[in-house]
Amino acid sequence: MTSISTPRGPAGSPAGGPAPDGPPGPGGGPEPSLSFPRDRQERHKLTALQGLAALSLDAMASVAYGPEAIVLVLAVAGSAGLGYTLPVTLAIAALLVVLVASYRQVIAAFPDGGGSYAVARRHLGRRTSLTAAASLVLDYVLNVAVSVTAGVAALTSAFPSLYDDRLPLCLGVLVLVTAVNLRGIVNSAKAFILPTAVFVGSILTLIAVGLFRSAPVSTEAAAGHASVLGENTTTVGALLLLKAFASGCSALTGVEAVANAVPSFRAPAARRAQHTEIALGALLGVMLIGLSILIGRFHLQPVEGVTVLAQLADASLGHNWGFYVVQFATVVLLALAANTSFGGLPVLMSLLARDNYLPHVFRLKADREVHRHGVVALAAVAALLLLFSGGDTNTLVPLFAIGVFVGFTICQAGMVIHWRAGRAPGWARKALLNGLGAVLTGVSALVVTATKFTEGAWLIVIALPALVVLFERVHRAYGRIDERIGLGRVPEAPHRDRSLVIVPVSHLSRLTCEAVNAAVSLGDEVRAVTVTHTDPEDREAARALRRDWELWNPGVDLVELHSEHRRIGRPVSEYVRRVYKYHPNTRVTVLIPEVEPDRWWQRVLQNQRGAVLAHAVRRDTEAVICRLRFRLADPEQRPGRTDED
């Protein structure tokens, strides 16, 4: 057998037919899918502004906990340690510049999306690309859970009476965000533009007003709360600064989301995605540096029960309506930051399904350009995490951000190889920039894993290779399917075999008549079979059926299959096996007639004999199964419809 390639017709379509729009089939071939006009497809994709709202919520919301993560680490060194907040933030901002510049190039080089997975797949090999994909999957799932729990935690801090209802609130927010995304990513982007604008505007206003103040205008938010400064202060050493840098890098989660979801943008998709990435980096950098400057200017100290961002709003704007606007905007954005994952992970899962590393169902799209199965799978796993944590943010935070640093490092290393291989003008400078980013993010990943290992990071250390193993097992399964069906090889010349159609019957009716009509149209020979049990009532029913059959005289033999037990599936499958034994070159089709009710609820009235028969024959034989649907709703139309399994 030789390998083949499909001849192409006009516009890239296979000769003799339209271009397949669907994903690979079980063996890698195309599956049928709905096709839509190009303008309708574009209408359900993102503009740059919508992309900023839909894909940047994770990164934007991280300013609520990124600076605080730095302050909490440096607080063990007392006031002297807090003085290094701005230098550490500037280092993180420098890394942010490197990442934005790198992912801008990733978007141009890999316009089909996938981010670090796509880079690693081309330049670092299969195993490394799967590690990158697994790290992104973990980060996206954890981002949903952490964002939802953090938003609900902020809400319960403002309204303590809701504290005991954290888990139902978390699940309610998750259901709401999932429902919005099932409506389409454009609809979700439009829904989130306003809260994103309010949050960014309030933070920038806080920073602008604070820069003109020499002292806090109010400290009411922190009044009466105990300070968490270290009593036995330590010296500010390299290890402490490195740990603060690694903790603060949690503010960089979400930077990669735009590169992962490039196909979600309107044409020209790559250019719009690049503009979105630059805008995201600029806004995030300004907010991080501005908040760090205010922390030093107001000499803020971390206290129990009050976030650093709340203290900054209090010090800059006063304990008035401006303070509550900042807090409310933070609550909303943290709760909605999960939308970043719903925009990026389904696209990544689609790419993995295309490469046979996930089930192909994740490749399918709904009528609003939504990877619906990916959205639902993400929501289901996130719900399990919420149930596991009881809606507690602190249970999930130690697991967060490790995966994204692994993806950052792999992506940066892959881009170094990309520049070296292409050797375009300026490649050395670009490779140096990516190499520096790989070193910085790699060190951060190691530090975060080591410092949070006992706090739950060990789970990520186990889950990451487990996901890689899962991807490989799915890939091997598809490989075996491809081998068995001979995908990509010229098959033998078609030949005609004797065809036998078997029709299971239990009584005479219009349904039986339609089944026999369909059977004689399909096969060279037709046999009706009925299962007879040993009790007198069933034997009498069998004799009545035989008598009616002879009176009807359809020209088709009725074969009685005797069974000592009240089974219908096994006797039919055993009869099919006997046919194969004595007539090995016969093509056997089992045609199962079934009533399709007029109303969906009437399905519970059916005896499910057809499903039992189909399962038994499929499990025990190689016969083709056809299930004839007899419609009750519209007698004017052709009453039968055959679905071939």
TrEMBL record:
Keyword terms: Membrane, Transmembrane, Transmembrane helix
GO cellular component, one term: membrane
Organism: Streptomyces tsukubensis (strain DSM 42081 / NBRC 108919 / NRRL 18488 / 9993)
Signal sequence, start to end: none
Start-end of Low complexity biased regions: 7-18
Entry's transmembrane regions: 71-101, 130-154, 166-185, 192-215, 235-258, 278-300, 320-353, 374-391, 397-419, 431-450, 456-474
Highest taxon in the source lineage: Bacteria
GO molecular function: transmembrane transporter activity
Topological category with respect to the lipid bilayer: Multi-pass membrane protein
Coarse class of the protein's main subcellular location: membrane
Xref: Gene3D superfamilies: Amino acid/polyamine transporter I
Subcellular location: Membrane
Protein name according to UniProt: APC family permease
